[in-house]
Amino acid sequence: MNTPLCTGFTDPRGLTRRGFLNQFGMGLGGIALADLMMRDGGVANAASLDHGVLGSPHNGAKAKRVIYLFMSGGPSQMDLFDHKPLLNERHGEELPASVRMGQRLTAMSGNQASLPLAGTPFSFQAHGQSGLTVSSLLPHTAKIVDDICVVNSMYTEAINHGPAVTFMQTGSQFPGRPAIGAWLSYGLGIENDNLPSYVVLTTKGKGGQPLVGRYWGNGFLPSRYQGVRFRSGKDPVLYLNNPDGIDREARRKMLDGLNELHRIRLAEEADAEIEARIAQYELAFRMQESIPDVMDFADESASVLESYGEDVKKPGSYAANCLVARRLAERGVRFIQLYHPGWDQHGGLRGGITQQCKETDQASAALIADLKVRGMLEDTLVIWGGEFGRTNYCQGKLSPKDFGRDHHPKCFSLWMAGGGVRPGMSYGKTDEFGYNIVENGVHVHDFHATLMHLLGIDHEQLTYRYQGRRFRLTDVHGKIMKDILT
Fold first, then answer.
1. The predicted structure's pLDDT at residue 322
2. What CA–CA distance (Å, rounded) separates 74 from 409?
3. Alpha carbon distance 91, 356 (integer Å)
4. Alpha-carbon span 178 to 157, nearest angstrom
5. Digit-coded pLDDT (tens) for 12-24
6. Which H, E and C letters describe 230-264, residue by residue?
7. How are beta strands 469-471 and 228-230 bridged, if at all?
C-alpha cells in the first residue's frame, strides 16, 4: 500500500509526470508548465523550448550547421579525385590476386572469369596553391580546391546501396536508427522556431537507386526529430497549405482547439508523441509563412544566380537545391541534406559520370564560394560524397568505347569544407592500384565522430536509451580525424 507523504499528496510513483507537477507545491508546478506551453493565446511549439538535451555543446564548436551534399550511387573516386596513372598503364590487364587479396565482390562481378583493370578516360591536373589534383570532369571544383579537404581513404563494410546509404546516414547498416540530422536536432535543438532543424532536398526527376524515408528518419528518437523533406513546386511540404475554404485565422482557431484537446490528454498521460504532435502542428502553421520566403529567389542578385548555373532557375534541380540550402543555412536550419542520385555507373561510365558532374560541379563550387563571401563558410560544415566507391576493374566486358565499375567499399573519396576543417589538403592514401588503403584509413564511424566533434559534441556522450541499451550515432567505435582540423 502506498503511504501518503503529506495531506492531499499521494505517492508520485502512482502519478503521471503531469499529475505530479500539478500536485507539487499546491499546483505551482502545473501552473508553471502551463505558462511555458502557452504563447500568444495558443500552445507553443515544443521546439521553441527545445535547446537540445545537451543544453550547450560539450566543447568549443567550430561549426553551427551542416550542408551534406550526398551523391547517391557511389561516385567513382579514381575518375574524380584519386588519380591512379598505373591503371592507365596497365589498362586491360588482370587485377593481381595480391591486390585483391580474396576480398569479396558483389554478385554482379563476382562470377566474372576476368577482372580487367580500367584506367580513367579523363585527365587530371593540379590546381590552386595547394596543388590538389582534380579530374577534368570537375572544372568548377578545381577553382575551390584551396577551400576543401579531400579524404581519399574512406571505407565501409557495406557493399550494396541500401545498407551502405543507411550506414552513412545512421551509423548502422540496419534500418531503424536515427539519421545524423535527427541526432543533431536531439542533442543541440533548433535555432529558428519557424523552420525545421533538419531539412532534406532531393533532385527532381533523377533516376537511380531509390531514396527512402529511413535515410532521414528519427529511428527510436521522438518523431519531432525526423528530417522534413522539401519538394519542388508550389507545395514544398505536403499538406502544409490550408484546404480550400480555410483561411489562416480559421486554421489558428482549429489548432487552438486541437491543442486544448491534446493538453487534456497530456494531463492524463504524459506521452512524448502527443507533445511531438503539438510541436509539429504549430511548426507547420508557422512554416506556411516561412517556407515561401525560403523558396523565393527574387531577392537573389543576378550574379549569384548565374554562379549556380542555368539550372538554378529550375525548381528541384540540384543547382536550385544548393541555393535553397544556403538560404536555409542563413535562417538557422542546423542540418541540410541534398540527395543527388544517379552515380551508379555499372556500365556506360564515360557518359554517365560526365552528365552527373555537369549537373553538380558548378553548383557545388558556387555554394562554397557563396558561403565564403557571406562569412558563413567558417561555421558551416559542407560535405560532398557518396556511400562507397567503385572498382578499379571493369564490370562486364571492357571495350574501347564503354566500360563500367562495380561497387567498392574498401576505399572511396569525399570532401569537406569549412566548419573547422583544414582547407587545401588531401588526407589518406590508397595503393597505386586504387584498391586498398595504405595510409590514414577513415571508417564511417570516424567520419561521424569528426562531424560531431566539429559541432561541439562528444560522440561518446550523446546517447539515447532504447530497449535497455544506450545507443549513439557511432555505436561503440569512432576516432576523430584530428589531422584535418584547424
1. 98
2. 9
3. 24
4. 19
5. 444 454 444 444 4
6. ECCCCCCCCCCCCCCCCCHHHHHHHHHHHHHHHHH
7. unpaired
Residue 10 has pLDDT above 70, yes or no: no
Contact 60, 199 (CB under 8 A): no
Strand partners, 469: 466
Phi-psi region of 370 (alpha: psi -120 to 50; beta: other; left: phi over 0): alpha
Does 95 score more than 70 pLDDT? yes
Q: What domains can you pick out in the chain, each with its CATH number?
A: 14-43 (no CATH), 58-241+293-484 (3.40.720)
Largest CA distance in the chain: 90
- One-letter amino acid identity for 109? S
**Spatial contact of 130 and 146, defined as CB atoms under 8 Å apart:** yes
d(C-alpha 197, C-alpha 274), whole Å: 19
Single-letter residue type at 282: E
Q: Per 3-state DSSP, what percentage of the chain is helix, strand, and coil (rounded to 5)?
A: 35, 15, 45
Inter-axis angle of helices 272-295 and 318-330, nearest 10: 110
**Residues 401/391, Cβ–Cβ less than 8 Å:** no
**Rg for the chain (alpha carbons), in Å?**
25
CB 311 within 8 A of CB 321: no
**28 grid coordinates:** 505551482
Alpha carbons 164 and 237: distance in angstroms, whole number: 27
Grid coordinates of 375: 562569412
How close are the terminal C-alpha atoms of the chain, in Å? 61
Task: Report pTM.
Answer: 0.85
CB 458 within 8 A of CB 448: no
Beta bridge partners of 154: 412, 442
Please, are residues 442 and 167 in contact by the beta-carbon 8 Å criterion?
no
- Give me the phi and psi of 172, to 5 degrees please: -145, 145
Closest CA to 350 of 120, 78, 83, 84: 120
Indicate the helix (H) or strand (E) that contains 335. Answer: strand 335-339
Assign 26 a pLDDT band (cuts: 50, 70, 90): very low
Mean pLDDT (whole number) for 106-125: 96
Locate 449 and state its grid cell: 565522430
**pLDDT by residue (tens digit) across 321-355?**
999 999 999 999 999 999 999 999 999 999 999 99
Which grid cell sits at 329? 543555412
Tell me the three cell numbers of residue 198. 533538419
Q: Check whether 47 has a pLDDT greater than 80.
A: no
Q: Is 68 helix (H, G, I), strand (E, B) or coil?
A: strand
CA distance 48 to 286: 11
Three cell numbers, residue 272: 512524448
Give which of 462, 382, 430 is closest to 56, Cα–Cα. 462
CA atoms within 13 A on the CB side of 162: 7
Rounded Cα–Cα distance for residues 107 and 105 (Å): 7
